[in-house]
GTP-binding protein (Oceanihabitans sediminis), 172 residues
Amino acid sequence: MSLSNEIVLRPRFKFDVKQDNQTLLKIFEDTKNTQSDFIVSRIDDHVFIKIPKVKQHFWSPQLHLEISENDTKGTCTIRGLFGPNPTVWTMFMFFHFIVACLFFGFGVWAYSNWTLDTNYSLQLFVTLFMVLIWFALYFGGSIGKKTGTGQMHELHGFMRDTLRSNGIHTEY
């Protein structure tokens, strides 16, 4: 079952390349010194492409590439993941966790008061309010994704152009 990018907050892609992974990793590592439009860093088989601090805003995305070698000699798979700054993503997940805990906690409290025939209106109100907060977080993330779409295209274009300028064709 595939999901459209309309409901996915962190878009992903995957394609195969007829090149070994060490060559591709070296190509991206070399771009650190030959251009200044993006910040490129590498850790093992992972390449992170980020927007420079001067151009960054709260919703600026980054592109995480995992370049893994295939069983077939001389080919590899590139998996890409667009996402917000890890600090922003962690904050968002923390807020979701807090909202979920409050939802379940007040829901259980409301149910307990209901079964004991005591007033449960405050607990029910907070439980329903947590649903509204969750929707607000989701739509806030969607607005952030939309705000960062232009920079996502820049990151993807940089990745594609880097590969093509080295004679590597990306068909996916």
Remarks:
- The chain has a mean pLDDT of 87.
- The two ends are 18 Å apart (CA to CA).
- The beta strands are 12-17, 39-43, 46-50, 61-69, 76-84.
- The chain has four helices and five strands.
